[in-house]
Fold these 2 entries.
Entry 1:
Amino acid sequence: MSDMFIATSMPDRDWWAALWPDPEGVLRALGVQPEMTVVDLCCGDGYFTAPLARIVGGRVYALDIDPAMINQARGETARQGVSVSNWIVADAREVAALTPEEVDYVFIANTFHGVSDQTALARAVADILKQSGLFTIVNWHDFPRERTAVMGQPRGPKTEMRMTPDSVRAAVEPAGFHLARVVDLQPYHYGTIFERTL
Ligand SMILES: C[S@@+](CC[C@H](N)C(=O)[O-])C[C@H]1O[C@@H](n2cnc3c(N)ncnc32)[C@H](O)[C@@H]1O
C-alpha cells in the first residue's frame, strides 16, 4: 500500500501477545474510560481494538489503511464478543473528514514513529477531539533494537526510528495539545497522553 507509513506492518500475533499480555489493562492505565467515544487510529488486526470496545461499550471508530487488517480486526472483535460501531478503511491523514462527530479519545499505537508529517496528523486528530479530549500515542522506547527482544529475537522499529517522549511532545504540541502525562508501559513501551488545548 503506497500511502502506508514506513515501518508499520502488523507484528505476528505470537510475539505480540507475549509482549502485551494485558491490552485492556494497558488501555485503562492510559485513561480509557467507560462511555467514552474513541478512535483507534491504525488499528491493525484489532489487538487493542477489541479491549478498547469492551471498556467503552462499543463506541469505537476503528481505522486502518489495509482492508485485510480491518477484516482481521472485525473477526477478532466478533471472536471476543464485542461490538465496534464503525469500521473505516482509509488513510489516517483523512480521519477528520471521516469522523462525523467529536470524540473523547484518540488512540494510536506502534505507528507514530513512521508518520512523515507528525504535526499534520496531530492537527487532524485535534479537529475531531472535543475540547479537553485526549490523544494518546504509544511508542517503543528509544532503546537500541537489540535490547528489545521478545521470544528470543530483537523486535520493533530500527533504533534510529525510535522516538523519545520529548520528541513526540515537540511534534504534537504545536498542533494544539499539551502533554498531560507519560505512562511507562513495561517492558519496552511508553504512552504519551496529550490533552487538546485549542
Ligand atoms: C504496527 S501496526 C499496529 C497496529 C495496532 N495499533 C497495534 O498496536 O496492535 C500499524 C498499522 O498501521 C497501519 N497503517 C500504516 N499506514 C497507515 C496509514 N497511512 N493510514 C492508516 N493506517 C495505516 C498498518 O496497516 C498497520 O495495520
Note: The chain has a mean pLDDT of 97.
Entry 2:
Amino acid sequence: MSEREVELWSATVVQHHRLREDLAVIRLEGEFVPFAAGQSVGVVVPQNPNVGRRYSPALPPSLDGKLEFHVRAVPAGWLSGAIVADTAVGDRWQIGAPSGRLSVDPDAREVIMIAGGTGLAPLRALVLDLARRPQPPRVFLFVGGRHPRDLYASDMLWLLDQDLDWLTVIPVVEEIEDPDWTDEWYERVRGAEGFGEDHWLQGTLAEVASSYGAYTDHQVLVVGSPPMVRATVRALVDTGTPAGAIQVG
Ligand SMILES: Cc1cc2nc3c(=O)[nH]c(=O)nc-3n(C[C@H](O)[C@H](O)[C@H](O)COP(=O)(O)OP(=O)(O)OC[C@H]3O[C@@H](n4cnc5c(N)ncnc54)[C@H](O)[C@@H]3O)c2cc1C
C-alpha cells in the first residue's frame, strides 16, 4: 500500500523552525491523530504530493491535534530536503497510518534510551508520555551525533534533564570539534543554554552506551540510522545485555 493510499488526517504547519542547514523542527495543528508515542506516521507534504515518507512525532498524541516532527535532509533525498528548506507556515500535511511497536513497558523500572540524530523524536515523545505516569521509570537517555552541533535539541534536552528528576540525558559526540564550515542556522541559535563541553562523552553511541556494562534489569530502546542501530545493538549484546531486552525503532 502506498503512503498516498493511507492518508487519513490533515494538519496545518504552524511553525517551521530551521535549526541546522540540514535539519528542521516542524510543528503542526490539525485533526487528532490516534498514534501511540514511539510510533511513526505516514506523511505527505505539498512540496511533493506524490511521495510519502514516514516520520516519528516528537510529541505524544494530543487531543488538540498538535504534532511535531524533526526532519533531517538526506543528501539527494526526494523529500526530506524540500521539507527542511521549503516548508512554510500554512502548508497542509496529510498524515496517515501510524505504525511501530516502540514503547515502554508499563512495569519497566529502568529504561535505557539511545538516540542517534532524529532518532530522538520518538524517544522524546516517549519521555513526555512517561511524564504523565504517576511513577515514571528511571530513564537514561543517550543522544548522539558525530559533532557537537549535531546535538540539535541540546537546549530542550537540558530543560527536560533539569525538570524531570527521573530522567538523565547523556550527550555523546564522536568528535569534540565542529567541522570548520559555518552552519548559518546553527549560528543563529548558538548560545542558548544547553549541554556543553563539560557534559559530552566522546565516542560512538555504541561505544559509550555499552561502556556501562550489561543492562540486565532494564528495557533498552535504540533508534537511529540502520548502521547506528546495528552497531549499538551488537555492542550491547556483546557486553551482556540480553537481546530480548532491546527494542529498535
Ligand atoms: C519508521 C521510520 C521513522 C522515521 N522517522 C524519521 C524522523 O523522525 N525524522 C527523519 O528525518 N527521518 C525519519 N525517517 C526517514 C524518512 O522516512 C525518510 O527516509 C528520509 O527523510 C529520507 O527521505 P527522502 O525522500 O529525502 O530520501 P529518499 O529519496 O528516500 O532517499 C535518497 C537516498 O538517501 C538514502 N537515505 C534515505 N534515508 C536515509 C538516512 N536516514 N540516512 C542516510 N541515507 C538515507 C536512500 O537510501 C537513498 O539512497 C524515518 C523512517 C522510518 C522507516
Note: The first helix runs from residue 80 to 86.
